Amino acid sequence: MPVFLIERTFAEELVVSPEDxxxxxxINEESGVQWLISFLSADKKKTYCLYExxxxxxxxxxxxxxxxxxxxxxxxxxxxxxxxxxxxxxxxLTLQ
Length: 96
Description:
- The protein has 96 residues and is an alpha+beta fold.
- It has helices at residues 18-31, 56-66; strands at residues 3-9, 34-40, 46-52, 72-76, 79-80, 83-84.
């Protein structure tokens, strides 16, 4: 399945409650997208997230339903020391 990088910009510092996270997870499941990992900027106003989805439209739909920005959505692959591998190795992105 394709992997996408999503850049989200928030007007204020991001604070996520357990209820907010559960709601986003439910919407993602209903929209057929799978969150892999997120990075939060030092000022806590931007996130950079990796998602698996069939296409960028599925990510846009889930973001809209969840009330989240999705400023930039880019399909990505992995750049390995031996060259472009073409896909992200999910095993390395699994949170323990």
